[in-house]
Amino acid sequence: MLQKFDRSSLKSLEPKDLVLARCEAFRRNDFEFVFFSYHADAPFLQAFPDCRDYVQYAEQTLQDAFTINACRVARARQVAADEVQVLFMMEIECEGTVQKTMELACLKRTERGWRYHSGAKRPLEEFSCPIEDIAFEDFLDSKSLVFF
């Protein structure tokens, strides 16, 4: 059995580290950690307000459905006292197809630490430069953005 993350560690994670920890939790099928890393106002929680329901869904639908090959943070910026955006690259393999995306995570600070609020993604192939050179403005300037 895979080791689960200690939820109490959430409080000490900085925004970049939370993005990477969520990625690792998905790799380990630790859906409880993923659930508790969401901000209380996250749109995701409208669909899954109960942890048990999400874990059951994730175990039936997400577990073994994809493999995260890589997750690399490119940059982060503070947009408000209690909000940070993290831009990162994700490489996922699903049914033999590799998908590379740039993703923008919006994280909000709570009294229990940083939490994932929402995100957006674009195909990596839309960018012609190294991920470290992709600016937030370049990422957001697209009709192909997918928000979640």
Under CATH at level 1, the class stands as Alpha Beta
Q: State the distance separating the first and last CA atoms.
A: 30 Å
* CATH domain fold name: Nuclear Transport Factor 2, Chain: A
Order of helices and strands: HHHHEEEEHE
Give the % helix: 25-40%
Named CATH architecture = Roll
What does the overall shape look like? globular
Strand order of the largest sheet: 1-2-3-4-5
Keywords, please?
36% strand, 148 residues, globular, alpha+beta, Nuclear Transport Factor 2, Chain: A, 5-stranded antiparallel sheet, 5 helices
Account of the protein in words:
- The protein is of the alpha+beta class and 148 residues long.
- It has a single domain, classed as Roll (Nuclear Transport Factor 2, Chain: A), CATH 3.10.450.
- The mean pLDDT is 93.
- 26% of the residues lie in helices and 36% in strands.
- A 5-stranded antiparallel sheet has the order 1-2-3-4-5, covered by helices on one side.
- The chain is globular.
